[in-house]
Design a protein that fits this description.
Chain lengths: 310, 308
Amino acid sequence: METKHRDLTPDLFGPLGVDEQESERIAGPPVGFWRDAWTRLKKNRGALISLATIVLLFAMGFAIGPLVASHSPYAQDLSRRFAAPSADFWFGTDEFGRDMWSRVWAGTRVSLYIAFLAALLDMFVGVTFGAVSGFLGGRVDDLMQRVIEILNGVPYLVVAILAMLVFDPGIITISIAIGITGWTFMARIVRGRMLQLKDQEFALASRSLGASRSRLVWKHLIPNSLGPIIVNLMFTIPSAIFAEAFLSFIGLGIQVPEASLGSLISDGAEQLRFHPYLLWLPSAVFCLIMICFNLLGDGLRDALDPKMRK
Amino acid sequence: MTRYVARRVIYMLVTLFLIASITFFISKMLPGTPFADPKLTPQVRQQLFEKYGLDEPLYVQYVKYMVNVAQGDLGNSYYFEGRPVSQMILSRFPVSMFIGVQAVIFGIVVGLALGIVAALRHNTIWDTLAVVIAVIGVSVPTFVLGPVLQYWLGLKLGLFPIAFFESWWHSVLPSLVLSVFVISEIARFTRSEMLEVMGQDYITLARAKGLSGLAVIIRHVLRNALIPIVTVLAPLTIYLVTGTLVVEQIFAVPGIGEQFVTSVFVNDYSMILGTSLFFSVLFILALLIQDISYGIIDPRIRVHGAKE
């Protein structure tokens, strides 16, 4: 190809000029922290499926399961004990002839309820404790940290067992026992964030505008710590679910005739030889719950706190 | 370092003191007395109360109880009359420990191997396998895994005895069940730490110096990757304790866990409280060892105190 040479004369060159308006224009809509996290979470297929499954499990436990069940979870009928799964009893019946379908969903309800309550306690006690400790600092912080170090040595199992002995065994007692020991890790994380954030410019700005201390903490510092709080919450939940099921399995948790997945699994293990469906069904539902919460937790951690990714 | 260790030990003692005090007051809050038998005449009951010091004021009982606990005396079992709780615990402990230690050793060996292979063959089938096992390990609890393995390996395939504790073969299934969580934790940890270390500059330097691949992995990567693994120690202990309760129940192993579950069913309060105290001591000791070894490895923790 032939190129045509042309003389370069100075008049060909001139300042282009910067359009002030143009350079200030923002190219795309601003992507905030939460939008960014949501985009990252959407890419994680396992976490999304888990989220959908958890929603489904909630629906099954609280609405669909009991609604479509034609038998009460408590009605005993010895004439129909150990009925195998059939059109009438979808999950079969247990040794007292109780309908396993409704019992499994009743147990699921307990697990999800525990998940919710443990998360709530963790959030209120752990976040408040950590926020106060980190924000006030000094002697108060010192004292509060000593309290945490001492509580940290108390195994939850022991607290739960002792609580079960003194109070009536049941959902409330289990929740309290889990709540007493479960929040220390959350408090540590929130305290760390507080120490890190409280001297930053935006906090100083808010303070110089006359914001009160509680406003500063609740409107600025806590919202800025929500990422780590949510991530930690997602790991509290499966351990609380496990704790309840474990206690029910060894007979210290939910008492008959109430059903918990732990006690159903315990009963099922005894009948394993002749009626294995009594073990498989509650076990499968329980493992599904655990896997979903764990995968969702992993996904949220990657989405909200990419640095923590392991 | 001495100051750091001394501080950890003091925390440990305070925690233990607290737990022991709580167990004492809980034992006082429990309904009924150990001598509620209606056949006892008031005089005999009075004598029994005097013999066991139950007629004394609460604070005297408390001091006596604490002194006894400090000496390792946890009182007598309510159910098996006259048998000291501490003796019953110690007689059962070796069986539980054997199963637990076997599970941990097996778990560490398999977990390490799996974690190393997963990190070296990053994004291959081995890697996926390690991730899947890690998810299963935290999601499938011992009380599901136990019956499942009992059913398949024991009952269907007949490879191992499914219950009791008569020979080494009987310990295989219980240990196997316990080891799954250990494998998953160790594999996950080793994998992620190795991936992190392999990206470091000093690994590139080691390679640039001309060290062979194996030497780099063993001398540089593994050594640095395995340091933080001590953080698994305390959670692992608490897991083994809960695991023992479940596994011994499922496989009818005469260990400390099986005894504990039985004592729950027969309301043997002194046994329950004593075992709880024993578990607490185990956990706190593990925590202490973890903190101290962490302090030795990472000097920053010694200076700043708590790990963040």
